[in-house]
Amino acid sequence: MDHSSVQPAPIDLPDHDWRIPVPSAGCEICAEAGEQRRRARQSGDLSAVTDHNITLRGHPHSRARTGH
Can you point out the beta strands (E) in the chain? Predict the structure, then answer.
């Protein structure tokens, strides 16, 4: 019985943009998400900070700036 194993080839994952998203000036949605993120960071709720970063990163202003 052959017990040799073959490890699968590694996969390449795309680079992730780890920069902290910046709210777009003049946008109420961005301003609110930025303020909520600030309050979450102050209270130590890093899960909520991440949620607000995702909101900002996915907002149309962010995609236009970064080319996503």
Answer: none
pLDDT tens across 45-54, in order?
A: 999 999 999 9
* d(C-alpha 22, C-alpha 28), whole Å: 13
Q: What's the gap between Cα 62 and its chain centre?
A: 11
Amino acid at 49: V
Q: How confident is the model at residue 5 (pLDDT cuts 50, 70, 90)?
A: confident
39 C-beta neighbours (distance < 10 Å), count: 13
Q: Is the backbone of residue 11 left (phi > 0), alpha (psi -120 to 50) or beta? A: beta
pLDDT of residue 30: 92
Whose structure tokens read 């795309």? Answer: 14
